[in-house]
Design goal:
Number of strands of chain B: 12
Structural class of chain B: mainly beta
Number of strands of chain A: 11
Order of helices and strands of chain B: EEEEEEEEEEEE
Number of helices of chain B: 0
Strand content of chain B: over 45%
Strand content of chain A: over 45%
Shape of chain A: globular
Radius of gyration of chain B: 14 Å
Structural class of chain A: mainly beta
Largest sheet of chain A: 7 strands, mixed
Oligomer: heterodimer
Distance between the termini of chain A: 37 Å
Largest sheet of chain B: 6 strands, mixed
Helix content of chain A: under 10%
Number of helices of chain A: 0
Shape of chain B: globular
Helix content of chain B: under 10%
Largest interface: A-B, 25 and 25 residues
Order of helices and strands of chain A: EEEEEEEEEEE
Chain lengths: 114, 115
């Protein structure tokens, strides 16, 4: 069974640009969550999608957005990039939405903003 | 809101020595607790989890963690570490958010195993 895949793996952008990251969950998983990982703030929850609906959103500005498609693939978009957006963005998928369910993480997309 | 504290940012240890990575959480209600491991340039992998029942949970590669409700702790231990255990370890708790749940992570502990 293929794991969670994220594309691209590495990305370099300049301030003011926008970026779109993609995540393909494990087949059959309907929940996709996104996390931002930085050395200073650690792992922070961005948002979660289930059946094409955003169910929860973390404490991030509106420049961060996402969506989920009918095949459960998800994208996240960051507009008007800032230097502080440089981070590893991790996507995780889960079969359902139980608190005890295991989240399976992808390898991440490392975004560098210059 | 719940929080997770990992007091040790880095733990150096010699190969074959025992190790304990500490984790404390803030919630006073029923919790689901997890330990994830992150190897360099990779995503997170679930190491073990506590849902209910026995307070001692084990992973397939020799790690174990003990849930201690009175001390609100979920420390991770291994009696004898290998070089390959060098990685960053994250403790996490599941928190309810509206209609679903999210993971709240600690700041991570970097385990450095030396020969």
């Amino acid at each position: 069974k293929a794991g969670v895949t994220q594309t691209p793996r590495y990305l370099i952008k300049t301030r003011g640009q926008q970026v779109t990251l993609s995540c393909s969950p494990i087949s059959g998983h309907r929940s996709v969550s996104w996390y931002q990982q930085t050395p200073g703030q650690g792992l922070q929850f961005l948002f979660e999608y289930f059946s094409e609906t955003q169910r929860n959103k973390g404490n991030f500005p509106g420049r961060f957005s996402g969506r989920q498609f009918s095949n459960s693939r998800s994208e996240m978009n960051v507009s008007t990039l800032e230097l502080g957006d440089s981070a590893l963005y991790l996507c995780a998928s889960q079969i359902g939405t139980t608190p005890s369910g295991e989240q399976f993480f992808g390898p991440g997309t490392r975004l560098t903003v210059l | 809101a719940q929080s997770v504290t990992q007091l040790d940012s880095q733990v150096p240890v010699f190969e074959e020595a025992p190790v304990e990575l500490r984790c404390n959480y803030s919630s006073s209600v029923s919790v689901y607790l997890f330990w994830y491991v992150q190897y360099p340039n990779q995503g997170l992998q679930l190491l073990l989890k506590y849902l209910s029942g026995s307070t001692l949970v084990e992973s397939i590669n020799g790690f174990e963690a003990e849930f201690n409700k009175s001390q609100t702790s979920f420390h991770l231990r291994k009696p004898s570490v290998h070089i390959s255990d060098t990685a960053e370890y994250f403790c996490a708790v599941s928190e309810r958010m509206d209609s679903s749940y999210k993971l709240i992570f600690g700041s991570g502990t970097r385990l450095l195993v030396r020969p």
